[in-house]
Amino acid sequence: MAHTESGEGERLYRQYLAGDQTAFDGIIRLYKAGLIRFLYHLSGDWHTAEDLSEDCFVELLVHPRRYRFHSSLKTYLYAIARHKAMSHLRRRKNAPLLSLHVLPDEESPDPAESHEQRVCLSSALGSLPREYREVLYLRYFAELSGQEIARVMHKSPKQVYNLSARAKNALKARLQDEDRPCPPFENHGKKEDALDENHRRISRLY
User: Fold this and answer.
1) Contact, 133 vs 169, CB < 8 A?
2) Residue of 15, 17, 136, 174 with fewest CB within 10 Å of its CB?
3) Residue 154 pLDDT exceeds 70
4) Would you call 39 exposed, middle or buried from its count of C-beta atoms within 10 A (0-12, 13-18, 19+)?
């Protein structure tokens, strides 16, 4: 899925550079929702996330030749997003810590159970150091590869591998330390929504 998305983004961007202005609308549709979620997890504010996501696309418009297809367009946009979020947080004296709350924007087949899962998972993730939460989001929510995460976070692939391993171990330890264990992450069939998909991705860790 991630590779298909990346290939589609690059195809659209080549069309845009060739003069097809409508292709840029396709790029926005392809990446905007994911960027907003990522920026929300970094900034802790939905409106800020929306504004910063727009800044990412504006930068792509204003400096179209800076992206040279050395990485996927998705990786490039997430790197821009991270830079803008970090700059925004540095300007705020009382900036909140990185949040990885699972957003309840889809209706769940079992609202009570899913709410309990969200609370448990968010509590465990929220207690982790910022870089741990960031690498987990990029790997299991944005579905970037280790190489792509290295580009976004300005680290070597080896550093990302080690950071990811420490983050997963820390998350498992937090979950095991909970007084009440998390409910199991279940597959609800064809109607599995985005919230359950996020749970499924994180459940790979333990």
Assistant:
1) no
2) 17
3) yes
4) buried
